[in-house]
Amino acid sequence: MSKSLKAALLWGLAVAVVLGAAMQAVRPSLGKSAGPAAEIAAPAEVRAVLERRCYACHSDEPRLAWFDEPAPVYWMVAKDVRDARARLNFSELGNKPVAVQRAELYEAVNQVRLGAMPLPAYLAVHRGAGVTAEELKVLQDYLAPFAPTPSSAAAAVPVAGVVAAGPVGEKMPAGESANGVPFEAGFRTWKLLSATDRGDNHTLRIITGNDVAIKAVEEHQTHPWPDGAAFAKIAYAAVDDGQGNLVPGKFVQVEFMEKDAAKYARTKGWGYARFRGDALKPYGEGTHFDEECVGCHEPVKDHDYVYSLPIARDAVGGGR
C-alpha cells in the first residue's frame, strides 16, 4: 500500500469517527404525553400483555434496545415511536370512554391477528418481540366476541327494511365531514355486498355498494376497485331475539368508503367518512382524522384496503 493511499484511508477514518461522534449529539425527542396519564381500564393480565408487547412504542414509557440508541438508527426509531404514540397511546387511552377504549383495543388486536403489528420490519430486528398465540388469546378473550348479547339494546328492526330505508329514513347529516368526503344519500337503496359483526361492541354491520361497486364485483374487477366505487357500512345494535338469533336493533352509524385514486391519494386512494346516531353527526376532528381509517385498513392493502369481501354474484343469473 502506498503512503498516499494509507494516509487517505486514515484521514477518511478520522473524518468518519468525528462525524459519527457528532451525530450522537443530535438526539431528537421521543415526544411527550399530549394529555394526562390514564391507563386503559382492563384486567391485570390484559395490561401485562400490552405492557410487554406494545408499550415499547405505544406508551409514555418507550423502551429501546441497545442497538436502537446509536444515530442515525436512533433518528428513525424516534420518529417511529412518535408516530406510534400519536396513533395509539396506551398510557392515555384511559381518558376516553370505556366503549372507545375497547374499540381501539379491538382494532389493535385485529392488526396483531392480521400480522400488521408489530411491524414486520420491527420484528426482523427485535426478535422475540411478537405477540404469542397465548397472549393473543388473552386479549381476544377480554374482548369477549362470544359474550351474551343484551336483549335490551333496542327493539329489533324488520330485516326486510334495514337496507332499503332503515331507521334514519330520509334524514340528511347534521353537517359535512371534516375531510370533505360526501354523505351518500343514495346508500339506502344500494345493493348488498356483505355483512359482518363486531362481538366486542355488539353491533351488526351491513355493507352495501353503489352501481360502480356492484358492476366491479360482477365483472371481477376488484383488484384494484375502480374509481367511483363506493360502499356504505351500516351499523346497528345487535339484538338477541330470544331464540338464539341476532337481529338488527337501533341504528348506530353509517360509514362510507369512496374510491378515487387521484383525489384521495393521501389516504391510499380511498375517501372515508362516518356519520353517527339518528342525527347523523359527522365523526372526526380536523381534515386528517381519516388517517386512523387508513391505519385500520393497512393490513388488507393486498385487497385494495377493503376488509369485507363481497358476496359472490354473477352478471347473469343474479348470483350464486
Tag the structure with descriptive keywords.
320 residues; alpha+beta; 6-stranded antiparallel beta sheet; globular; disordered C terminus
How many β-strand runs? 6
Rg, rounded, reads 24 Å
What's the average pLDDT?
80
Note the total helix count.
Answer: 9
Q: What is the helix/strand order?
A: HHHHHHHEEHEEEEH
Spans of at least 5 consecutive residues whose pLDDT stays below 50 are 156-165, 315-320
Biggest sheet layout: 6 strands, antiparallel
For the termini, the CA-CA separation is: 77 Å
Strand portion, in percent? 15-25%
- Principal-axis shape: globular
What strand order characterises the main sheet?
Answer: 1-2-3-4-5-6
The percent of residues in helical segments reads 25-40%
Going by helix content, strand content and strand pairing, the class is alpha+beta
State the oligomer.
Answer: single chain
Outline the secondary-structure elements:
Blueprint: H1 3-24, H2 44-53, H3 73-87, H4 98-113, H5 120-125, H6 133-143, H7 159-162, E1 191-198, E2 203-209, H8 211-218, E3 230-240, E4 246-259, E5 270-276, E6 281-282, H9 291-297
Antiparallel strand pairs: 1-2, 2-3, 3-4, 4-5, 5-6
Question: What features would you describe in this structure?
Answer:
By secondary structure, the protein is α+β, with helices and mostly antiparallel strands. Helix content is 31%, strand content 15%. A six-stranded antiparallel β-sheet has the order 1-2-3-4-5-6. The N and C termini lie far apart (77 Å). Mean pLDDT is 80; it is low at 156-165 and 315-320.
Can you give me a brief rundown of this structure?
This protein is 31% helix and 15% strand. By secondary structure, it is α+β, with helices and mostly antiparallel strands.
